[in-house]
Amino acid sequence: MTPEDDAAAAAAAGAGAGEGAIADGIADLTAAFLTTALDREVAAVVAEPLGAGQMGATHRLALRYGPGTSGPATLVAKLAAEDPARRTQVADGYRKEVGFYRHVAPTVDIATPVSGTRPSATTAPPSRCCSTTCPRRRPSPR
């Protein structure tokens, strides 16, 4: 990715609902944070670690919504590695992942996670809250 791609990805991090909401770690994924990021009232969240976390941290989030609010019962949150030194070591991989979701995923017919992406192309992977089901994306017309 070019420096322009990095800047565009960083600018996109604040776009849409949950403007500026980038989780630095699992402790940031509170009900209040998710309410802003998902643009719906989340009353409670319980996080359960998934996987070994060599490149980052992945957690299954069990959500309970406020009255009159609905949404998926569970999401998967993908976060940067907790250790700052590890983040630096794998930063290029994070940038490539952001590039894939921004440039390649919309053009191919494969299953990819959707919703809630807040890419930060500098030292962290996309802070990603995504559905536990991955629908197939259809390529965007060019």
Structure summary:
Helices cover 27% and strands 21% of the residues. It is of the alpha+beta class and 142 residues long. Strands 1-2-3-4 form a four-stranded antiparallel sheet.
Description:
The chain is of the alpha+beta class and 142 residues long. It has one domain (3-108, 118-123). Helices cover 27% and strands 21% of the residues. It is built from four helices and four strands. It has a four-stranded antiparallel sheet. It starts with a helix and ends in an 11-residue tail after the last strand.
Question: What order do the helices and strands come in, and which of them pair?
Answer:
Blueprint: H1 3-12, H2 31-38, E1 42-50, E2 56-65, E3 74-80, H3 84-89, H4 91-104, E4 128-131
Antiparallel strand pairs: 1-2, 2-3, 3-4
What is the helical fraction, as a range of percent?
25-40%
- Shape assignment: globular
What is the N-to-C succession of helices and strands? HHEEEHHE
Which stretches are poorly predicted, pLDDT < 50 over at least 5 residues? 1-18, 115-135
Strand order of the largest sheet: 1-2-3-4
Strand content: 15-25%
Number of domains: 1
Number of helices, where a helix is a run of at least 4 consecutive DSSP H or I residues: 4
Mean pLDDT: 74
Q: Using only CA atoms, what is the Rg?
A: 15 Å
Give the helix/strand class: alpha+beta
Largest beta sheet, briefly? Answer: 4 strands, antiparallel
Distance between the termini: 21 Å
The tally of beta strands, per DSSP, is: 4
